[in-house]
């Protein structure tokens, strides 16, 4: 199994300069699920190099087991510090693609043309593609061959408006992800705030929030093995 993980390079929330980035649990839990199953994993980001992590996620307590493992795993840390620039990625060699969240993707992956092309190619090839939390922002500009939004008519989840408002993110992010997905025609679903919730629609797998990280990784692995 060859898996591409696409990560954010965005370190601040737009003009506010408030720090953001990758929510580390959303990367770590699926990463270890896939790595432990023998997957060959490639990490990429718009700028390449080290991926910024959200300090709120870094300081989260109790520390998720996957994050504790990441902090004691030099190979995983080195991989996150040495991502490949997206412009150098050819998606045709991968069996699945995964987009972790954190608020960073709301800025740098929404209109990144290379990322959009990777997503559209993955759907045309019908390979598994997974997103979690705010990683689904990368889906919003993707289109089907006829020009319709790629999410139109698809059942999915993402960080909910209720969760955004409770976390104080509704006024910091450039848009509310749930609202944008609904406006694009997605059949948006969600579970209770901060509880694990994963949706599969064909090759598309989506997780609602950080609590869904382990479940999403397991769902992606199961689809790859199906």
Features:
226 residues; Rossmann fold; two-stranded parallel sheet; globular
Layout of strands and helices, then pairs:
Layout: E1 2-6, H1 24-36, E2 40-45, H2 55-58, H3 65-71, H4 74-81, E3 84-85, E4 96-99, H5 105-108, H6 113-125, E5 129-132, E6 155-156, H7 161-166, H8 177-183, E7 187-188, E8 198-201, E9 204-207, H9 213-225
Parallel strand pairs: 1-2, 1-4, 2-3, 4-5, 5-9, 6-7
Antiparallel strand pairs: 8-9
Helix pairs in contact: 1-3, 1-9
Largest beta sheet: strand ordering: 3-2-1-4-5-9-8
Mind telling me the CATH class? Alpha Beta
Query: What oligomeric assembly is this protein in?
Result: single chain
Number of strands: 9
CATH architecture: 3-Layer(aba) Sandwich
| Main sheet specs | 7 strands, mixed
Terminus-to-terminus distance: 12 Å
Number of helices: 9
Low-confidence stretches: none
How many structural domains does the protein architecture include? 1
What percent strand? 5-15%
Kindly identify the CATH topology.
Answer: Rossmann fold
Rg (CA only): 16 Å
* Shape call: globular
CATH level-4 homologous superfamily: Class I glutamine amidotransferase (GATase) domain
Fraction of helical residues? 25-40%
């Amino acid at each position: 199994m060859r898996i591409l993980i696409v990560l954010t390079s965005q370190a601040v929330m737009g003009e506010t300069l408030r720090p953001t980035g990758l929510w580390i649990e959303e990367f770590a839990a699926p990463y270890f699920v896939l790595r432990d199953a023998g997957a060959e994993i490639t990490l990429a980001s718009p700028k390449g190099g080290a991926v910024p992590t959200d300090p709120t996620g870094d300081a989260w307590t109790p520390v998720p087991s996957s994050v504790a493992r990441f902090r004691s795993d030099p190979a995983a840390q080195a991989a996150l510090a040495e991502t490949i620039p997206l412009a150098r990625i050819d998606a045709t060699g991968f069996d699945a693609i995964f987009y972790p969240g954190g608020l960073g993707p709301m800025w740098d992956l929404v209109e990144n043309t290379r990322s959009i092309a990777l997503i559209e190619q993955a759907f045309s090839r019908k390979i598994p593609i997974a997103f979690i939390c705010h990683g689904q922002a990368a889906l919003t500009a993707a289109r089907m061959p006829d020009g319709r939004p790629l999410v139109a008519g698809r059942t999915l989840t993402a960080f909910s408006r209720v969760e955004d408002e409770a976390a104080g993110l509704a006024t910091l992010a450039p848009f509310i992800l749930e609202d944008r997905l609904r406006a694009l025609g997605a059949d948006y679903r969600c579970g209770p705030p901060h509880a694990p919730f994963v949706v599969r629609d064909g090759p598309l797998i989506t997780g609602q929030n950080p609590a869904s990280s382990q479940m999403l990784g397991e769902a992606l692995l199961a689809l790859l093995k199906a």
